[in-house]
Design a protein that fits this description.
By secondary structure, the protein is mainly alpha-helical. The protein folds into two domains: 61 residues, no CATH class; 134 residues, no CATH class. It contains ten helices and no strands. The longest helix has 21 residues.
């Protein structure tokens, strides 16, 4: 059995049994051979079972039924080594948070986001910090160019709280960026920009000015 075979078996099983929700224990009960393959072969960079990889490979209607085990009372810790494993793997592709023009780049952006979010949900402060910093690039682009989200200008403190909340609450195994966008879209209804902004104003992550987002003109 290979990974594609596992996905095929799970899709067929879920279509036949039609559970309202399913979890890792459901897979162990009804597809033990698939569970054993996943347990042995499908692991994250930090050595845990990569259920996100499994569930995002299922058909969309099945993805939404996934019910992951919730982390209770996470222990806050620096988490430098764990976060660095994820960052090192994708170091050359982090540009997807600045620009993701195609499906492959958008999928990779979600993979990186979810990997860091899962660590952050377990109390990993470094993962949370790095994910907030990476998301800042995407969010700044949304604020500049999206008619719905531009109303968040001037509400940076609340914006940061919303993003941090999305990282903590994320459970569904679909697109993290879509979940984040929809959350900001709904939470931002009725907001009005507090003021016009200048190029010297700090942007979402607080570490840069808007002028820093403007690429210099190429030299002749």
């Amino acid at each position: 059995m290979d990974f594609d075979g596992v996905v095929r078996v799970l899709n067929e099983l879920l279509s036949r049994k039609q559970p309202e929700t399913f979890s890792s224990s459901w897979i162990l009960k009804y597809a033990p051979s698939c569970y054993r393959f996943i347990q042995e072969k499908i692991r994250t960079d930090v050595g845990e079972i990569d259920w996100d990889r499994v569930t995002r490979s299922l058909t969309f209607m099945h993805q939404r039924k996934w019910k992951p085990v919730r982390t209770r009372n996470p222990n806050p810790h620096p988490g430098d080594a764990e976060a660095e494993l994820v960052l090192k793997r994708y170091r050359e592709r982090l540009y997807v948070f600045l620009a993701a023009p195609n499906v492959e780049d958008r999928q990779l952006r979600d993979v990186i986001s979810v990997a860091l979010a899962r660590l952050a949900q377990k109390g990993n402060r470094r993962a949370n910090h790095e994910l907030m910093k990476l998301l800042a690039y995407t969010i700044d682009e949304w604020l500049e160019n999206d008619a719905c989200l531009c109303r968040w200008r001037g509400h940076e403190d609340e914006l940061r709280r919303q993003v941090d909340g999305c990282i903590r609450r994320y459970r569904y195994s679909g697109s993290f960026l879509r979940y984040l966008y929809r959350t900001l879209e709904y939470a931002g209804r009725g907001l009005q920009p507090l003021h016009a902004y200048s190029l010297d104003e700090s942007v979402f992550d607080g570490a840069r000015r808007r002028a820093d987002l403007i690429a210099p003109e190429p030299r002749a």
